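BUG: 3D viewer hangs when loading the predicted structure for this chain

Environment: internal workstation, default settings.
Expected: structure renders.
Actual: progress bar stalls at 90%.

Input used:
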Amino acid sequence: MSEYRDRDHIKSYVKRATRMSEHQRQSYERLYGAYCIERTSSPVDPASFFEHQQSPVVLEIGFGMGHATAEVAAATPRVNYLGVEVYKPGVGKLLSRIDDRGLDNVRIIHDDAILVLEQMIPDESLAGIHLFFPDPWPKKRHHKRRIVRPALTRLMARRLEPNGYLYMVTDWREYALAAMEVLDATEALRNRYDGFAPPQPWRPPTAFERKGLRADRPILELYYVRSG
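C-alpha cells produced before the viewer hung:
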C-alpha cells in the first residue's frame, strides 16, 4: 500500500499556458510515438524502454526545454536518460533535440513526476535522479508543493539502486538549506560531501542557471547517495 495521504499528493507544479512554437508542435506530433512513454499504473523496468537495456537508467524530473538533458545524453551514450516533464513545449523541444542529434539513450514521459515515481518506477531500478532547478515555491504557504519533501525523498531513495545518487541544483538558498535538512533526515540517503557539493563537471548549465546568475543568486548543489 502507498505511504501517501491526500496531503502528499499535492502537485509540485501548476497548470499554466502552454504556447508551443510551430517547430515544437510538429516535433511533438511527429516524434511522440518514437521517444515518449505512457505512464503505467503498475511498475515497469525502466531499462526496457531503451535499446541498450544493460545500461544504467537516470531519471530527470522536470527537464524544462531539455538542453541539459540532450547535452548530458550526448556526452554519456552508455547511460540511459528518462526525462519526465509536464509542460508540452518542453517535451516538443527535447524531442527535436533528440531527433537532431540522433540520441538513442533518451526517452520522455509527458506526465506528473510524482505519479510516475509512485506508480511506474520499481524499487532499486534507477542509477540516479536529477533535480535541476526544481520550482522553489518561495512563498511559505507554497512550500508544501516542493518536490523535495519527506514523503517524496523517501520514495526517491527506494527507487534508487544501492549507491545510486540524487543530484539537486537550485539557485534559491532557502530552498537549498531546507532540502538539505529533508535529505539529511532521509534514512537511506547520505550526503557525499560535507554540506553543499562542488559543481559536477559533467553537468551543463541550464537556462534557469543563467537566469539565477544574472539575478546574483548563488548556484547551490546537493549530491546524496543511497546507502548500499
